Amino acid sequence: MTTIIFATTNEHKVKELQDKIKDWNVNIISMLEAGIDIDIEETGTTFEENARLKAKAVSKYTDQIVLADDSGLEVDAINKEPGIYSARYLGDATSYEDKMNDIIRRLKGAANRSARFVCAMAMYQNEKELCCVRGTIEGYIGDTIKGAEGFGYDPFFYIENGKSLGEISLEEKNKISHRANAIKIIGDRYKQLWH
User: Fold this and answer.
1) Could you read off the pLDDT of 20-38 as tens digits, one per residue?
2) What's the total number of domains in the chain?
3) What are residue 120's DSSP bridge partners?
4) Strand, coil or helix: what is 81?
């Protein structure tokens, strides 16, 4: 069975990925489980650049396939902010409730409230890129923060059924999310790499 190293130290992300790729017949482990303990500075200007930076950095330490992602929220009416700075928007210590309220304030009176979550995923082996894909989920920013499911910006990001991602189950979200879409694209294109 092929082992893929996920360039993250976040065990929740590893578990989420494991759940999504059960049919790939691969073993997903974190970089720490692979014995790779490095700090990777995200200096890219796009989600794709940051995903590539992470995957390439980890692939220097292993012959295994490395997968990395970078994700965030783009709000069209405010120049696609917070974008690659989604986690750091208004500072690392700022709560997501405060971040969401600030964006709602900035959108006051805006006719266009369209937004999307983006997930770029890059796959490398021996410092060479195998692929880089982008998955998205389209929606809009609501006036209210609703729901206790999910995390981050989910409770003010509404989808076509009129519910926020914070109001739908994690199982339902995991079928339609930006990360699920990116994983599906990689799976459709690259399963032949390890079959």
Assistant:
1) 887 788 889 999 999 999 9
2) 1
3) 70, 134
4) strand
